[in-house]
Amino acid sequence: MNSVDPIPLMLLAMNGVALAIGFFMLGWIMALNRRTQSQANKFPSVQDFFPAQNRPQPARPECWLAIRSVSPEAVKLALGLTRATPCSWAEGIGGAHEFFISPRVHGWVIVTGVGLPNPSDDVDGCFLFLTAMSRQLGHVQYFYANRLFQHHGWARLDEGTVTRGYAWTGETVWNQGTETLPEISAGLKSFAYGENAATILDAEMNYECVPQLAARWSLDPAEVKLNSVRESTGIAGESAWS
């Protein structure tokens, strides 16, 4: 009687088991991958929860004027601009020039630049500048929102008269006129002189809401859409008075 060597049979059995385990693992991995993809399609990614981190933010100056029903040339004369040169909206709206005068957009001319005064430095100088501009140009609006300190301010003037003015620079330094409905609907809070009720949260909220007020009063520069090079070309220059 011939005896059968069991070792080859054991090796064949082990190979079979190994192949079976391999096919099982492959099937499990494929099923897990399909499940992961299904969940990814079903639920938003981390980037979807934080879209602002992945999208370029529109340019918005720290300080700007909105002047109604005038030409850029009239604003140029009022500012006493010298060495004026053509400047694109994209470059000028960032506020790096001493003054940038935009083309007329929806009946408004926007002015930005480091030459504009702000209440954090000198609220009286800011008031005098705005009233002088309004006497020459009529209806003038002013907006200020400092990212670092959340200092903020806004004003409306007609023919040199302030109809509404407010500025906060760690404390209220300007509060003139009656609070307007657009301020209330934009979520802005104003505080009386000497009133220390304003908190860091109030300051941050006001800072964030200044563009919303601008959109209600006139327009938000960061949301302006221009359709041609001609429409988007303004004037940059320096003031002879500075």
How is the largest sheet built, in terms of strand order? 2-9-3-4-1-5-6-7-8
Indicate the percent of residues in helices: 25-40%
* Shape by Cα distribution: elongated
Mean pLDDT: 83
Q: Count every helix, treating DSSP H or I runs of 4 or more residues as helices.
A: 7
What order do the helices and strands follow?
Answer: HHEHEHEEHEEEEHHE
- Whole-number total of structural domains: 2
Overall radius of gyration? 32 Å
Secondary structure: number of strands: 9
Low-confidence stretches: 40-57
Q: What class would the helix/strand composition place it in?
A: alpha+beta
Strand content: 15-25%
Report the biggest beta sheet as strand number plus sense, adding barrel if it closes.
9 strands, antiparallel
Describe this structure in words.
- This protein has seven helices and nine strands.
- The chain folds into two domains: 6-51; 63-239, no CATH class.
- Helix content is 40%, strand content 23%.
- It is of the alpha+beta class and 242 residues long.
- The longest helix has 37 residues, at 6-42.
- It is elongated and about 110 Å long.
- β7 and β8 (172-177) form a beta hairpin.
- Mean pLDDT is 83; it is low at 40-57.
